[in-house]
Amino acid sequence: MRAAVLHEIGQDKLEVLDDVEAVGFGPGKVRIRVRATGLCHSDLSAMSGVLPQPAPFVPGHEGAGEILEVGEGVRNVQAGDRVVVCWLPACGACPACERGQTELCLAGFMNAGTPNFKRPGGDVFGFAGTGTFAEEVVVDAGCAVPIPDDVPFDIAALIGCGVTTGLGAALNTADLEAGSSVAVIGCGGVGISAIQGARLRGAAEIVAVDPVAARREAAVRFGATRAVAPEELPDAKQQITGGEGFDHVFEVVGKAATARAAYDATRRGGTLVVVGAGAMDDVLQLNMFELFFDEKRILPSLYGGGDVLRSYARTIALWRAGRVDLAGLITHRVPFVEVNEALDQMRTGTALRTCIEL
User: Fold this and answer.
1) What is the C-alpha to C-alpha distance for residues 49 and 60, in angstroms, rounded to an integer?
2) 21-22/117-119 β-pairing
3) What pLDDT digit, counting tens, does each position of 197-244 carry?
4) What pTM was estimated for this model as a whole?
5) Whether 129 contacts 86, CB under 8 Å
6) Strand 266-274 vs strand 297-300: parallel, antiparallel, or unpaired?
7) CA nearest to 266, candidates 176, 165, 168, 167
8) What is the spatial distance between Cα 90 and Cα 348, in angstroms, rounded to a whole number?
9) Most CB contacts within 10 A, which of 8, 26, 174, 326?
């Protein structure tokens, strides 16, 4: 089968090969025919080494498709079911799951160290234990979440990561109140989803911050009340909040510099929500006095900060009701053989989300 492979960390191009085989099928596993996959910035971060990932590997973790085969003991899906790929499934038995913090379950991360594929030259891993830049993938049954027949594969793919992450940051983690003032730093697919979540919650002011003009324009279409370049954020803070700062600021870039800017843009007693996935050696510097004196809450948000299955169902309900725009997030579509074009679209900021059609 075909799959897009990164041979070494640090390379910026993928090679589409036709000699890749999905491996590991057996009890508790399912084999999925991938029909659509989105490109998330985390894929680029894994390719560059910002996020730890063994190589060679197949990127992709935001996918949807149909079940081809189920292993012994699988009860949640059957052959022919339409599913979204969940890269962070909950085991249901660990301390995090028992506390109700299923997004902190480490079971899914453990899968990242086991090869999902093989080639004549050896093993190939799947990013985040999945690897949806492939025509087929074998994953734990918990990674296959059934979706209704009326949800298109491209929409379902977005729900698998970016939309769930951004909406959840606003609806679960921040739990912002109607009338709040909000700033969102980083307006790709995840940031736009956070903007839509803030709009759903009734935020009075939503300022989108991004260096790319096209993304700023898109942010306004999706509900931002104002869009500014990063250097214009201090002026927006002064004009909108009288210099006090925003009630909620979402950092959706994953860099210490933007997290620091987000902290500075947050009012005393406000909330900084850290959504972007950054590098282990990129250190955010805060002094002990400001932490104590400003009483700003710093809330990391992993995968939307809530129960993933409930978040999926909520997103589908909101999409059906026309309360969130998911189709509009897909600004580009490319065939599988042009996957490197999708990478360039993400790097330059020309795409909110590119759908890779398999």
Assistant:
1) 15
2) antiparallel
3) 999 999 999 999 999 999 999 999 999 999 999 999 999 999 999 999
4) 0.95
5) no
6) parallel
7) 176
8) 34
9) 174
